[in-house]
């Protein structure tokens, strides 16, 4: 019987809603057979959606214990979604080495004032996106989006995580206002980032949150990007970026069908021997 996996979720240690145990219970109900926690890694300044630095040890110990307690029924992996901000935080930082895996994501784009901790936040409220675009980039969207992808490439080259998180999240607040995904410069940024991802041997996550939160009508990355990923033979996994237990496998069947139609034959899952490809269908993954 096919099952699902999900390695991207946020519990109440960061900006998720519930205790991690509640997610485990709900994952079993949703036919999940391999599971990972990935709270937002602590950053050395105040961000409401990250684990507080003094809670990081507690998170690690709690999830490690849940992993042990559930070993008989559900393989659980201890991870984090780690931001990449040059000279401040990266997935290869020493403090994250004890984890089972790291998802590397860019939410905050360095605008050259990092000692003041001022960034272009691409994942926050859309008025912040619009304000930052004007204030930091003089409304030059090509330069702004270029900085986002440049940071992503720098992370992939020099601080490689196992999984690249929502690689084109910079489209979330765009809504067709500032650029089109058919713009030549945009496509060049994406394709260059895929080349870097391929060389880095990273797994690109297909993240369904954009769809079920109704931010976009397609997942991260967009279908045309997924077609290139398929042609380039870059490994993928399917994640929901759940912030609530009800979201653990949300939009998975529809997205798995889309991936099948594009031509993908395998999704990567975590096992005790590391990340491995498995066949899948719209019903789930053959573990
Ligand atoms: Zn994220
Ligand atoms: Zn996330």
Description:
The chain has 287 residues and is α/β, with parallel strands linked by helices. The chain has one domain: Metal-dependent hydrolases (TIM Barrel, Alpha-Beta Barrel), CATH 3.20.20.140. It has eight helices and twelve strands. The protein has helices spanning 20-29, 56-69, 126-137, 141-158, 184-200, 209-212, 223-231, 252-262, and strands at 4-6, 32-40, 76-83, 101-105, 108-110, 119-121, 163-164, 203-207, 236-239, 266-271, 274-281, 284-285. It has a seven-stranded parallel beta sheet. Strand 7 (163-164), helix 5 (184-200) and strand 8 form a beta-alpha-beta unit. Helix 4 (141-158) packs parallel to helix 5. It starts with a strand and ends with a strand. The mean pLDDT is 97. The site of one zinc ion has 5 residues, from loops.
Coarse shape: globular
Compute the separation of the termini in Å: 9 Å
CATH domain class name: Alpha Beta
What fold name goes in the CATH topology slot? TIM Barrel
CATH homologous superfamily title? Metal-dependent hydrolases
What is the CATH architecture assignment? Answer: Alpha-Beta Barrel
The major β-sheet equals: 7 strands, parallel
Structural class: alpha/beta
């Amino acid at each position: 019987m096919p099952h699902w996996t999900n390695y991207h979720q946020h519990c109440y240690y960061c900006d998720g809603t519930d205790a991690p145990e509640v997610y485990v219970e709900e994952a079993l109900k949703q036919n999940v057979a391999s599971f990972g926690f990935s709270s937002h890694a602590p950053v050395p300044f105040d961000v409401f959606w990250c684990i507080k630095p003094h809670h990081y040890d507690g998170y690690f110990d709690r999830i490690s214990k849940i992993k042990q307690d559930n070993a008989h029924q559900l393989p659980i992996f201890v991870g984090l979604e780690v931001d990449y901000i040059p000279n401040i935080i990266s997935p290869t930082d020493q403090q994250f080495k004890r984890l089972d895996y790291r998802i590397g994501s860019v939410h905050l784009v360095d605008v050259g004032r990092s000692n003041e901790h001022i960034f272009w936040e691409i994942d926050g409220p859309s008025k912040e996106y619009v304000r930052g675009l004007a204030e930091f980039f003089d409304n030059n969207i090509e330069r702004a989006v270029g900085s986002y992808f440049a940071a992503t490439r720098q992370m992939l080259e020099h601080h490689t995580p196992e999984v690249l998180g929502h690689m084109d999240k910079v489209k979330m607040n765009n809504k067709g206002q500032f650029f089109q995904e058919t713009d030549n410069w945009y496509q060049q940024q994406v394709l260059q980032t895929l080349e870097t991802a391929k060389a880095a041997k990273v797994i690109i996550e297909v993240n369904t949150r954009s769809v079920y939160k109704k931010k976009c009508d397609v997942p991260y990355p967009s279908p045309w990007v997924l077609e290139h990923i398929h042609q380039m033979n870059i490994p993928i996994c399917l994640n929901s970026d759940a912030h609530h237990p009800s979201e653990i496998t949300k939009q998975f069947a529809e997205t798995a069908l889309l991936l099948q139609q594009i031509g993908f034959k395998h999704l990567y899952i975590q096992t005790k021997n590391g990340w491995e490809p498995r066949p899948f269908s719209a019903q789930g993954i053959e573990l």
